[in-house]
Each structure stands twice: as structure tokens, then as C-alpha cells.
Design goal:
4 strands, alpha+beta
Length: 101
């Protein structure tokens, strides 16, 4: 499963820009990967983990702006069509697991 976060935050004042930067850094530190500007996704194991991630985003929300979240399965995510542009190849964004013994 994936949790996708969409956000549109105001950046008119220095305080708003600071809130934007703090929210974006929170997402990156939390394991989210940028899909495009203001759209981030994170792979989670199951619905319980997705709920925990979503609750954590709610706790770190900004006072203004629009933040939306969507949970999709890997099958649904794989069916996403890229209409214009290329998929990012430099970001490891898969559910494959690596075990080193």
C-alpha cells in the first residue's frame, strides 16, 4: 500500500514559507518520496501502518493551506499512467525488500 500526500500551502509571508519548509522536511524525514511538486508518497506494509502514518501527518499539519491524503494499493499505484515526462529513475521507489546476512 501507499500513502499519497497532496498539499497546497500558502507561501506569501516568511512565517508561511517556514511552515511549508518544516512540513516538507517532516515528510522527507518520515520516508516520503517526492512524486512531483507538492505530491509525496510512502510505501507502507498494511492498513494499520497506513493509519499510523496518516495520524502522524495529521499531528504535523500546518495551520493554513490544504493537505489531502489518499491510500492506494500497489496494484492501483502500478496502473498510474505517465502522460508526459519520464518516471524518476534515480529514486528507489519499490516494495521489493533486500535482506543482507
Amino acid at each position: 500500500m501507499r500513502v499519497v500526500v497532496f498539499f497546497d500551502l500558502p507561501v506569501e509571508t516568511s512565517a508561511q514559507r517556514r511552515e511549508y519548509r518544516m512540513f516538507r522536511k517532516f515528510l522527507l524525514r518520515g520516508g516520503f518520496v517526492m512524486m512531483q511538486e507538492s505530491v509525496y508518497s510512502k510505501i507502507v506494509l498494511n492498513g494499520t501502518a497506513a493509519s499510523a502514518v496518516m495520524q502522524n501527518v495529521r499531528k504535523n499539519k500546518t495551520p493554513q493551506g490544504l493537505i489531502q491524503m489518499l491510500v492506494v494499493t500497489e496494484k492501483q499505484f502500478e496502473r498510474m499512467e505517465v502522460v508526459v515526462g519520464d518516471k524518476q529513475k534515480t529514486v528507489i521507489d519499490s516494495d521489493e525488500r533486500l535482506v543482507v546476512l
